[in-house]
Amino acid sequence: MRTENAVIWRVRRLPRALPGMVLAVLLFCQPAPLHAQNSSSASVPDATPAPPSTAAQAASSAPTMPEQPVADKTPVPDMLLVKSVISTGLQFLQPRTLEPHSFREFTLWGLASLSALDPSLSFDSRGANIQLLSGQTSLLSHSVPTDGTADDWAQIAVDFLESARAHSLAVRTASREELVQAFFDELFNHLDPYSRYIGPSSATSDRAARVGGEADIGISLGQNGRYLVISAINANGPAWTAAIDTGDRLLSVNNRLTAGKTPQTVMEWLRGEEDTPVVLRLLTPGQRRARTVTLRRAKTPPETVFAFASGSIVVLRVTAFSADTAEEMSQYLDQAVQDTHLKGLIIDLRGNRGGVLQQAVTAAALLLDRGVAAVTSGRDSQANHIWAVQGGDMTNGLPIAILVDGRTASAAEILAAALADHRRAVVIGSTTLGKGLVQTVAQLPDEGELFVTWSRVIAPLHWPLQGLGVMPQICTSLGAADVEKSLHDLAAGQVDNQAAITASRAARFPIPVSQIMAIRKTCPAALGTDRDVNVARSVLENPEWYKNAINAIPDDAVTAPQLSAAP
């Protein structure tokens, strides 16, 4: 697609609410962090040296200082905090995992981290007691509670950790963060690939990506000669609706002059406590007088939707699903439909790894009149939802093409599947990743987070996303010649990928791996290319092609054709 004539869009935040209504709420369970007292470090008494021999006394009359022992400088982890973290984690995990597991199983899985830290350590849990062994030597034997609580098993875990620290240098030199990380890493090795523990530092970054980090005003700065200038404005931030434009020179922040300062330094000035004021002095190039703008800091999720118009087609690039993604989409869609010459919309989800499930459902609500966007099913009753939407299609039936590739995952797959299953969009590209499991998040007392898989996603036509991924109506991952043939056949009313589409929609959980492979190999996962955009444009500009591709999706469950996984 030619982009040299593309018009980059920027829209102002609209005061109205999003159209459409999401009829279910995703619950993120976040137990209040616990604050444990710091444990006291054990003191090491001074050793008394043996008295010098008589010969030694005769050799020197100089007074001598008693020798001091070499103290163990290894920091002692706060084991009370470790216990609190493990206890909170066990309590959160037990009712929520897809398959039921006991506190005993979780704890023993986690304690396998000691063997990972020191291979000479092992556990024997075959008898009435659990034993920590070093080779054949028993270091600690612990009775098993008949009906232990999460706190009981957390104490058992800490007892073994402390025993291992006393006997193993490798364990003793591990920090608190390393002990906790290793414990949960080993525990989650026994569950699905998406459940995980994230330490405090990474958890802070993840939270910032979902809901916004440190409060600021939502601008980026660059250097233009001797001036600092506004280089970008975040559509989710306070500056978006203010009298600020890219290219404006920033002269001062709260009366602090920016002359001679780096963009990084001044960006720090812009950050601070949420809802506190920031006074900017700005000058637009070409004007003589500077102006003052006052804003209030806010936590600003990163922008995730970017739009441009090229001819009669509008492209929305959605990079992730954060707390404001659906609202960003709503604003761009509102502006797009003002163009009476608009022929179609491309939603580019290539490389989109997902994010907040509720945002994907709300995005679907912007483009569907009504219906089920997805179903989530898990062991915990709070994980079971029918994600139904109603309220009206913002675009009044505008033709839509969705671009996907092998890195399209999770919430992005949910949006693609919802619009495809409702015959609302043509999916173009390759088979997606196939992440159809939903995680719920718990904040732990150490400020780390647990991501625990607690439900499976079922698409509107009742097929599971996990493993399968979304099968496009038009496959572009088999090469240029295959794409040309597909478009030629599409013009004649035939969808070359019909058998795989039908098979994917007829699949039901649980699906044998061989069946998944047989379906996916018909349009193998691959990275997206410019070819995807060109195909989408061709389909949107030819109403008959678009109709034929839309009709490739069955109305409901049908008998699946037999596909072979053999090459």
From TrEMBL:
Q: Which InterPro entries match?
A: ClpP/crotonase-like_dom_sf, PDZ, PDZ_6, PDZ_sf, Peptidase_S41A, Tail-specific_protease
Q: Where is the composition biased (Low complexity)?
A: 39-64
GO terms for biological process? Answer: proteolysis; signal transduction
User: Which residues does the annotated region (Disordered) include?
Assistant: 38-73
The secretion signal range is 1-36
Q: Which GO terms describe its molecular function?
A: endopeptidase activity; serine-type peptidase activity
GO cellular component assignments: outer membrane-bounded periplasmic space
- Record key words, sorted: Hydrolase, Protease, Serine protease, Signal
PDZ domain segment(s): 213-271
The record's listing under SUPFAM superfamilies reads: ClpP/crotonase, PDZ domain-like
Give the record's family classification.
Belongs to the peptidase S41A family.
- Could you identify this protein by its name? Peptidase S41
Biological source species: Acetobacter pomorum
